């Protein structure tokens, strides 16, 4: 059953300016494996992480670098969670997370759906 939905839209040029003004954001927001990606991909991943926290209903116990957006060999994106972020998801009874993201016309967007077996969050 769906327990949460999140969506986020990022203007890629604005996101790039934010990273240029505050270079440490790259380390605070992205895992080591994500940091070398092109700007449009970083903006998509930022949108995905924002959408994920919205689907959870908040960011308590969630750490950005413990959320990594990766892809299956088919190209389908998914979220790899670790540490306290994975524990928060398990504690909330979430059994599946679905992710879709894209970029076009200077914008990146991501949509996340969280599911649990019984449809309720603690």
Briefly say what this structure is.
This is Holo-[acyl-carrier-protein] synthase. The chain has helices at residues 12-21, 25-29, 39-56, 83-91; strands at residues 2-11, 67-71, 77-81, 94-104, 107-116. The chain is of the alpha+beta class and 122 residues long.
Architecture overview:
By secondary structure, this protein is of the alpha+beta class. 34% of the residues lie in helices and 34% in strands. The strands form two sheets. Strands 1-5-4 form a three-stranded antiparallel β-sheet. A hairpin with a 5-residue loop joins strand 2 and strand 3. This is Holo-[acyl-carrier-protein] synthase. Its EC number is 2.7.8.7. Its cofactor is Mg(2+). Belongs to the P-Pant transferase superfamily. AcpS family.
Q: Find the structural class using helix and strand composition.
A: alpha+beta
| Number of alpha- plus pi-helical segments | 4
Strand coverage percent:
25-35%
- CATH architecture verdict: Alpha-Beta Complex
Major β-sheet strand ordering: 1-5-4
Task: Write the CATH homologous superfamily.
Answer: 4'-phosphopantetheinyl transferase domain
Subcellular location: Cytoplasm
Family: Belongs to the P-Pant transferase superfamily. AcpS family.
Binding site for Mg(2+): 8, 50
Main location: cytoplasm
Descriptors for this entry?
4-PPantetheinyl_Trfase_dom, Holo-[acyl-carrier-protein] synthase, Ribosomal Protein L22, Chain A, 122 residues, alpha+beta, EC 2.7.8.7, cytoplasm
């Amino acid at each position: 059953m769906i327990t949460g939905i999140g969506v986020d839209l990022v203007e890629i040029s604005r996101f790039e300016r934010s990273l240029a003004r505050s270079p440490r954001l790259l380390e605070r927001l992205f895992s080591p494996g994500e940091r070398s990606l092109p700007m449009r991909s970083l903006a998509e991943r930022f949108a995905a992480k924002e959408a994920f926290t919205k689907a959870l209903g908040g960011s308590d116990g969630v750490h950005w670098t413990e959320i990594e957006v990766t892809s299956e060999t088919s190209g389908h994106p998914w979220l790899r969670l670790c540490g306290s972020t994975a524990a928060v998801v398990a504690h909330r009874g979430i059994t599946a997370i679905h992710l879709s993201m894209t970029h076009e016309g200077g914008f990146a967007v991501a949509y996340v759906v969280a599911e649990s077996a019984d449809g309720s969050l603690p």
